[in-house]
Fold:
Amino acid sequence: MSTTQKSDPATDKKFIKMADVFIADANQLCDVKTPDHQLVNAALLYASARFSAFITASLSKSKENYQQSTDAAIEFYTAEFNKMLKEHMQQYEVVFDKSSTQKK
Structure:
């Protein structure tokens, strides 16, 4: 779901539910004796990049169309990731706020 598209509550719920499946899988991969969080994160990024390339190719009518659309697709996907990451980084600041008030 693009953050630039209008929001539909039913779509939002479906979107969040799908994302939660991926997050649960990532959490499960980290739920081991010696978790490698960076490896799990890298695998998620790799999977997202691979799937984004697949979607871009699938929506292209020809090789030429694909080649012409790759730069725009890359710009779109990276801009969306950037927006989402900034939003989540801001949301996680509350973790530090809670831990500082608990120490007092």
In short: DSSP finds three helices and no strands in the chain. The chain has two domains: 8-59, 73-104.
